[in-house]
Amino acid sequence: MIYPKPQRKKKRKQHGKSIFPQAAGTCYLCMRQGDYSRKYTEVHHIFDGPNRHISEEQGLTVRLCLKHHREGKDAVHNNAENMRILQRDAQEKYEMTHSREEFMSLIGKNYLD
Fold first, then answer.
1. What number of CA atoms fall less than 13 Å from residue 68's CA on the CB side?
2. Domain limits at 60?
3. 3 state DSSP class of 42
4. Is residue 1 part of a domain?
5. Structural domain total, the chain
6. CA–CA separation, 31 vs 113, rounded Å?
7. Which segments within the chain are labelled E, that is strand?
8. What is the structure's pLDDT at 87?
9. pLDDT tens for residues 65-109?
10. What backbone phi and psi angles, to 5 degrees, belong to 61?
11. pLDDT of residue 13
12. Looking at residue 20, what is its pLDDT?
């Protein structure tokens, strides 16, 4: 008799706590503009693609409203300037407790110059 292989559950990675202090339900980019009206937010990995796992492990994530995350012309996935704002802020925040060399070895690019 053939026995089926046991199904293995995929291990969920533990996400590091974001290094950006945010109140629950507030969008990081809205807060920078002084707007606290949007309550629904989603997690955005500031460095995506091959660096997405680094964003998760190092807490390089922010909460963004739909307008700033996925929908519209101001969304970081559609607006390179808003994406650069997050990347610069993330590097500055990371370098408060780490060196520039450590950031460069993780991400491989300097966003502050």
1. 28
2. 28-107
3. strand
4. no
5. 1
6. 25
7. 42-45, 61-64
8. 95
9. 999 999 989 999 999 999 999 999 999 999 999 999 999 999 999
10. -135, 155
11. 58
12. 86
